[in-house]
Design goal:
The complex is a heterodimer of chains A (109) and B (180). Chain A has one domain: Arc Repressor Mutant, subunit A (Orthogonal Bundle), CATH 1.10.10.10. Chain A contains four helices and three strands, in the order αβααββα. In chain A, helix 1 packs across helix 2. The longest helix of chain B has 36 residues. In chain B, the strands form two sheets. In chain B, strands 1-3-2 form a three-stranded antiparallel sheet. In chain B, strands 4-6-5 form a three-stranded antiparallel sheet. Classes of the chains: A mainly alpha (109), B alpha+beta (180). At the A-B interface, helix 2 and helix 3 of A face helix 2 and helix 3 of B.
Chain lengths: 109, 180
């Protein structure tokens, strides 16, 4: 997905929101579930793949942390924040268009 | 009490294997180890665990795989064993739903990984068949005919398996055109 205007997956969107404050993998899973009120669950394998790609892309970064702690913590980067606000714009457009057209039809009918 | 069960699954039947392991778990037989067509269970409470299996990106002993297994374990699951490139995980049902993949893309990536490996084995078999045929024509050696025949049987099975994985992949890709 080299295209900067392409839609983020739900997983990526929620991971970015979750790591506004540093979190480890399991924390991201729990936060995503809480934010979406249980609708979105991130499975471990899917989450791991997404985290690796996002870290490569520079959207999130792993915190150095102590060596004793096994759980790596991740935090969003400036690039990640930009991706998140682009996505928010895109979602606003989707909602606005949906509401205008669907409401318009309801009024006519 | 420990229970040992022998059962054979081909790589392309991984979904059936996982289903069987979960049926065992539902009866209170919890997976504790795996080996060559052998599964070891421990008697416990029915439905205590959910079992998931995955073909890893590289061998279980590699640094990449060890890191991945640790990541999955940090989410409350445990890796009960590995066999070839497969890893077997279980998680207590009371800790919540357990899945390794939660979107179509990662399921596609997983099936593709299995398909690629089956494809490589199938090519090796094809190479062997051609090789053995030429050798046999030249030396009329019975042993070569036997090995060649075995490879033909394996190849037929591999092609059947690849077909199954291919259909699985096509169905997933169709799903993706509608939702992630």
């Amino acid at each position: 997905m080299a295209d900067e205007t392409a839609a983020l997956t739900e997983a990526v969107y929620y991971i970015l929101l979750s790591v506004m404050t540093p979190l480890h993998g399991y924390g991201i899973m729990q936060k995503t579930e809480a934010l979406s009120k249980g609708r979105v669950t991130l499975a471990a394998g899917t989450l791991y793949g997404a985290i690796s790609t996002m870290a490569e892309r520079g959207w999130i970064r792993a915190l150095p942390g102590e060596h004793s702690s096994r759980k790596k913590e991740y935090v969003i980067t400036e690039t990640g924040k930009r991706a998140l606000s682009r996505e928010l714009e895109r979602l606003r457009e989707l909602v606005a268009n949906g509401e205008t057209i669907i409401r318009g039809q309801e009024n006519e009918g | 009490m420990r229970v040992k069960a022998k059962k054979w699954f081909w790589a392309w039947q991984f979904d059936k294997e996982e289903k069987w392991l979960n049926e065992m778990a539902a009866r209170g037989l919890n997976l504790i180890a795996v080996g060559f067509n052998t599964y070891y269970f421990e008697e416990g409470l029915p439905g205590e665990y959910t079992v998931r299996m995955e073909m890893l990106n590289s061998w279980p002993g590699s640094a990449v795989s060890r890191q991945y297994i640790r990541f999955v374990e940090d989410t409350g699951a445990e890796c009960v064993g590995t066999f070839l490139r497969w890893a077997f995980f279980r998680k207590k049902t009371e800790l919540g739903k357990f899945d390794l993949f939660s979107d179509v893309d990662s399921r596609i990536a997983h099936v593709s990984r299995i398909l690629l490996l089956c494809g490589i084995v199938s090519l090796l078999m094809a190479y062997n068949i051609v090789n053995m045929t030429f050798q046999y024509l030249e030396y009329q050696n019975f042993f070569m005919a036997f090995v060649g025949g075995f490879c033909v049987v394996m190849e037929v099975l591999m092609i059947f398996g690849i077909g199954r994985l291919w259909r699985m992949l096509r169905k997933l890709k169709k799903d993706r055109t509608l939702h992630e």
